[in-house]
Amino acid sequence: MTEKNATHSSGRMAPFARLKALISGDASAGVLLIIVAAAAMIAANSAYAAEYKQLFYGHLHWSPVKKLDDLHLWINDGLMAVFFFVVGLEVKREIITGSLANAAARRLPMVAALAGMATPAIVYMLVSGGGDYTRGWAIPAATEIAFAMGVLALLGSRVPASLRLFLLTVAIVDDIGAILVIALFYTEIESLSYFLMWLGASAAVLLAMFGLNRARFGALWPYILLTVVLWYCVLNTGVHATIAGVLAAFTIPLRRPNGEPMLEPLEHGLAPWSAYLVVPIFGFANAGVSFAGMSPSNLLDPLPIAIAAGLVIGKQLGSFATVFVADKSGFAPKPAGASGAAIWGVTILCGIGFAMSLFIGELAFPRFPLLKEEAKIGILMGSAASAILGYTVLALATKAPPATNDQTSDLQQTA
What we know:
The chain is mainly alpha-helical. It contains 16 helices and no strands. Helix 13 runs antiparallel to helix 15 (369-397). It starts with 14 loop residues before the first helix and ends with a helix.
């Protein structure tokens, strides 16, 4: 049987084709994150748990940046700047030439994303009761693009292209919102004078980068060099250093003076490194939930339940209700060719959180190790539930396209 007829005439995907879809294309990055998260949890609860903790949290005897004195900080504050830089490149491209460039096209995913961030926060606060848990309100607000798009990839052509674009755009707007939340609500300023000094330095570097952009400077190396300088300046302000990655990305010109593309090749060159190296390393360093000292009752504590509820209930409730109201009111039409059940399935997938949720969880409870561990449990439970439920709903709500004449002929020959 040839590769193209790996799908039976009944519309069911053959086992080999399903396995191939799982390890290739959009699904591969999501599958890798699942493996990494599982490996981190095993390591954190194995005979090598102490070594795992020492690897990431052990004090470095020497560090070129005094504030980053362990490997965990270098990963979260340094390496993740690459992830945020790639996100910034993607956001800029989408705003200028992509799905966010057209006001009418971006209207629905933008309002759905905003509602999909606000509703999980409300659900979280209602379930957790606030108090000591208040700082974690933004944890369930983000969507993990790799996981969500990976689940869609497993369904192949059953999912309309309009729904894929809708989910991708919602996830991008989610990222923008999460970046703003981190900058505004998870910034700790130790000294106002120190903050203002480094803020001024950051502004000067950023202005220099925009100056290069306006001058249509076509070489990439000055932007990269100044990005590192900007990262160091932002790190010292107390604002999370990864924000520098987003700001720097917005200074990269779309094209060189000779008309050749500049931003998109850079994005495409860095995206695999971000998806298959940076985020997995971050996941392995941050997803390791240690159950030492925990009891089964910790799984039912308000924090993990509130985060899981925000992801599973809040995300789909906010996003789906917004799509329904926008379509019925004429504000923005629903994705073309998509049934209500299929749209519901995609909004459930918006509840898959990983990198950004873990990132905010680390920032929310820096001095409370138990709460950080419970937050990880909530993120993993909510994300797994959203992935399974979303896949199930979409599998039931969509149909595989009929086999082509060539496929039917091949199948008959094989039989």
